[in-house]
Every structure is written in C-alpha cells, then in structure tokens.
Design brief:
About 5% of the residues have low confidence. The protein has two domains: 324 residues, no CATH class; 157 residues, no CATH class. Helix content is 62%, strand content 8%. Strand 8 and strand 9 form a beta hairpin. It is elongated and about 90 Å long. Strands 6-5-7-9-8 form a five-stranded mixed β-sheet, sandwiched between helices. Strands 1-2 form a two-stranded parallel sheet. Strands 3-4 form a two-stranded antiparallel sheet.
C-alpha cells in the first residue's frame, strides 16, 4: 500500500517556502517594530483613502493608476481595513517564498544553503520592518529575475512557474512604474540565461502579464494624467527634487551667484530645503531649475548628497564580507562543470554587469529601499552560481573550512548587528510616536475642529506618521486637517486642499496663513533640528518677502503648545504667525 503520509508530504512540499515566508513575516509583524521607511507611503494612503482632509482619489501619483484605482475602491468599501499595507506585505511574502524556493531547491552544499538562507532572511527582515513601496517593487522584480535565471539554467519546462514570475514582474511594475529602469539594469542574468531553454510558451507566459500591465497603465495615464495641471505638477516636483538632492547647508561663491540670479536671499535659500510651504511666487519651477543649474556641476548631478545614502552605508561592510566569503567558499578549488563556450561567457558577462550596476548605484543613490532588495538579490545569485561549479573532492580543503566559518560569522554577526541597530531605532521611533500622539491629543482638544496643521520642517511632516505600524495606517489617528506638503506641492490634491480651506491657489498662499486662527504651524525639534534657528530664518524670510502686504507691521511667532522641556532633546512646538504693529 502506498504511504499516505508520504503522499501528503509530497503535496505540501511545494508550499513549504510559502508557509515559511508567511510565518517568518508574521513573527516580525508581531514582535518587531515595523513602520514605513518614509512618509511617501503614508501620503499615498491619505490620497487613496481621503484621510486627514485630503479628497480621496485613485491617483496616488507614485503608484500606477490601475493599482491605485483598485486600492481606492477597496478603501471606499471598507475604509478601516489597511489595504495598502496588506497588499505590500502580501507582495513581500510572495517574493520571500520564491526566494526561499530558489535557495532550498538549489543543489549546492547544505552549508551554503544555510548560510544564504540566514543572509536572505536577514536582509528581508529589514524590508518587512521598514516597509516602502519602492523597496517592495524592486524586491519582487529581482527575486523574479533570480528565479527565471535558475529555471533557465536547470532547463525546466514548467510554464506555470514562468507565468507566476511574469505576474511578479507585472505587480512590481504596477507598484512603482518609475523604478522600471533601475529594475532592468539588474536584469542581465535573466537576459543571459533565457536563451538556454526558452520556448515560445515560456516567453508568452513570462511576458504577457508584464506587457498587459504596461499597456493598461499607459492607457490609464493618457486618460487621467494628460491634463495640463498634472503635467505642471510633474515638472514642478522634478525640479524641486533636483533642488533638494543638491541642496547644501553651507553656500559657496557659486551658490551666492545662483541665489542672485533668482532673486533669493540667504533666508529664502535656507528655507527652500527645509520648508514644505513653497509659495509659488518665490519657489516656482523656473527658479528651481535656474538655481540648480547655476549652483551645480556635472559631477554633483551624478553623485547624490541625499542623507539616505549615508543611512545605507551600514549595509556595505557586511554585504561586502558576505560576497567575498561566499565567492571564495564557492569558487576556490573548483572546476567548471556545466557551462561551456557561449553559455559561460554569457553568464560571466551578466555577473560583471550586475556587480557593476551595484557599484554604480552605490555611488549615485543607494538608500535602504534599494540596498536591501539588491542585497537579497545578490544572495540568490550566489546560490544559483554555486550550482554551476563542482568541487574537486580530491584536494585537502582546510582553507575552505576557515572561509566557510568566517562567512557564517560575517553573515550572522553582521545581520544581528544590523537588526539590533534597526530594532533600537524602531524602538525610539515607537517612543516618539507615542509621545507625539499624546501631544497631538492635547492640541486637538484645545483647537477648533477645522484647524489646519502645517509642519514647518521635513522631519515633522505628517507628525512622524511614518512611525505608524503599516497595518494600523490611520485607524488610530486623530481627526486632523493635515496640510499635504511634501511631493504633493503643486499637485491637483494640493491645490484642491488649498481652495477647500480658503487659501486660494499656491501662487500666494502664505499671506493668507498670517493672522489666521485656523492655521497652526508645528515644528519637531530633535538634536539636529533647532526651533530657534528655524524661527529666526523663517521670520527674516517673511519680513523680507511679505512685509509690503502688511504695511507698518512685523511678523511674530506666537507659541501655543510647547513641550520640548519635558522630553529631553526632542519635542513639539505648535505656534501661529501673526503680523503685529511695529
């Protein structure tokens, strides 16, 4: 009689990677401190759900319109369900399952599989704990590319698998269409290995989902984003992003000349990089483009000064150690056994291109949302590469044992160190979030319900809402009219918010916020953010730019709530700006 238990195990076996990925992610969601890496995700949730004063819209700007429309409909049906977070985590679990399948299905040595599993899950845990839509998109794409490469090298004829990989590529594109170029840069292994075992059915299963996503998204873009208003927003946001990427704290001689060309003073310049409320009469697309062009060199345009690049530096050392140790362990005392001639050169060339792309990205812009998916991808490629080589068992290998031991120490130690560092940061973020909620509750209980909250510095935007658990979203948030700011400046949502709340359009919005009891400015002070310095610059900016509209008066900051003295180096201050007689 056939063994029923063995038959049941064989049926469940293909689901083991998916079950393991689900359980591992669930453990992280329960016991780790999870949050969004940036407030971009929270802003898109506000757009899709219509929370905190914004009108609900299917156009979340960074997401593709088809995906935005689907999430928008779900929020309309059940607004308290965290659809956005659930979708991103479901995508992560799917990608993790495919990644584990690549590792567990490899024919490499058990020790190598264990090492790579630890490394892969270590980097994956960071993606779970600091969720970001761009990171999820790149992770899905790169895992699919690795899976395609492995299947092609193994000459698999399972068209269902290729359909799944095609769907992963399509979903990746729908999550973040603009990241397609970066994704293609890392796709060389798939292009190199597909010819080894490609058939029309495989290519059809792989490409049809992606091409359909591209076609539908393009059609929707033409229908919904072809308006002059949206094109103006896109141009403005690009020029503003260029300004922020190249913005430096200390002006040089070139900076002074660039300021003079757009009629900025030093206070205008300082606030341009720290102040979300850009009045269109001063901070417009033309001034941004002109200032950036005269204040930067070709080299500075190639190398980003974004602080997120510095944040990614902690990944470089352990990642480098992992790569060196694994490569040494896999390739020392080995002979090529499977690939010959053109196949070998194709795979080798794709490896060189991929490593070159990693080096290029690390020099230009390598924030965690890019570094983490790429780290997972490199681990999977090392697993695949190990199956191409056969060890010479006749040789004595004490060096290999030492290298493998060093690799285990590097992977586990580096991963645990990064997790400890991230856990501490997430713990502090959770503490700050609780402190912020308490403060905001006091503010809300003592101000009219139609008060518009405006953040005066980047760190405080959305009141540190990026510290919110991704599966909480806005369910526990206070009923605030939160000024949109950020990359929404000049967008249709931004303009509609201004008009709805009596500020007109963004061309001259700032004067309408002076002597306005409905407007409450906020500033988040931290060890690197000083309110006194900001207020001096802000008042000088207002007096220099808007004094003509308030003749015989000067601007004053009127604090309403200030709890900085009770919290050490950080705290909130809420204030109004009034024009008073001199």
């Amino acid at each position: 009689m056939p063994d029923k238990s063995h038959d049941i195990f064989n049926r469940i076996k293909p689901l083991i990677p998916l079950i393991a990925a689900f359980i591992f992610t669930l453990i992280l969601l329960i016991f780790a401190i999870c949050q969004y890496e940036t407030n971009d995700d929270m802003t898109m949730i506000r757009l899709l759900s219509g929370k905190n004063g914004l009108g609900a819209t299917p156009d979340a700007v960074f997401l593709s319109l088809p995906l935005g429309a689907i999430l928008y409909k779900h929020y309309q049906l059940a607004g308290n369900v965290p659809w956005y977070g659930l979708f991103l985590y479901s995508s992560l679990i799917s990608g993790c399952a495919v990644g584990l399948k690549i590792i567990l299905g490899s024919t490499t040595a058990t020790a190598n599989r264990i090492i790579c599993t630890i490394a892969f899950l270590g980097f994956y845990s960071h993606l779970v704990c600091q969720l970001n839509f761009a990171g999820v998109s790149l992770f899905l794409w790169l895992v699919a590319i690795a899976a395609i490469s492995q299947s092609s090298l193994n000459h698999k004829n399972c068209h269902g698998e290729y359909l799944i990989y095609g769907l992963m590529l399509a979903v990746s594109f729908l999550i973040r269409p603009d990241i397609l170029l970066v994704s293609l840069v890392f796709s060389a292994p798939a292009f190199a290995t597909l010819p080894f075992s490609s058939t029309k059915r495989k290519l059809t299963a792989l490409l049809v989902p992606l091409l359909m996503a591209l076609a539908i998204s393009t059609a929707c873009n033409r229908a919904y984003r072809a308006t002059p208003e949206y094109r103006t927003y896109a141009e403005f946001n690009k020029s503003r992003s260029d300004l922020l990427d190249l913005h430096s704290g200390e002006p040089t001689g070139k900076t002074v000349a660039a300021m003079a060309s757009v009629d900025w003073n030093i206070y205008d310049y300082i606030l341009a990089g720290d102040w979300w409320l850009h009045d269109g009469s001063l901070y417009n697309k033309e001034s941004f483009v002109k200032f950036t062009g005269q204040n930067s060199s070709n080299f500075s345009k190639m190398v980003s000064t974004d602080t997120s690049t510095q944040a990614a530096n902690r990944f470089k050392l352990p990642l480098t150690i992992i790569a060196i140790c694994l490569l040494s362990s896999l390739f020392s005392n080995c002979q090529i056994s499977r690939l010959k001639g053109r196949e070998f050169y194709a795979v080798s060339g794709s490896a060189v291109i991929t490593l070159g792309a990693v080096l290029l990205m690390s020099a230009i812009r390598f924030p965690p949302r890019v570094a983490l998916p790429v780290s997972c991808y490199l681990v999977l490629l090392l697993v695949i590469a190990s199956t191409i080589f056969t060890k010479r068992t006749s040789q004595i290998v004490p060096l290999r044992i030492c290298i493998a031991t060093a690799c285990i120490i590097a992977v586990t130690g580096g991963t645990l160190f990064m997790l400890k560092d991230e856990y501490h940061k997430r713990f502090m973020a959770g503490q700050i979030k609780g402190f912020t909620d308490t403060t905001l509750r006091q503010v809300v209980n003592n101000t009219p319900s139609d008060t518009v909250m405006i953040s005066a510095n980047i760190t405080g935007f959305s009141y540190n809402s990026e510290a919110t658990h991704p599966l909480s979203e806005f369910r526990n948030s206070l009923p605030l009219l939160d000024f949109p700011g950020s990359w929404l400046i000049a967008s249709p949502a931004y303009n509609s918010f201004l008009q709805k709340n009596g500020f007109g359009d963004r061309t001259r919005a700032v004067p309408r916020m002076i002597n306005n009891d409905r407007v409450l400015f906020s500033y988040w002070q931290s060890p690197t953010e000083n309110f006194e310095l900001f207020s001096n610059n802000f008042l000088a900016h207002l007096n220099g730019r808007y004094s003509a509209e308030f003749p015989g008066k000067t601007f004053r900051i009127v604090p309403l709530f200030d709890n900085r003295g009770t919290s050490g180096n950080f705290g909130w201050i809420f204030f109004r700006v009034n024009a008073v007689a001199q």
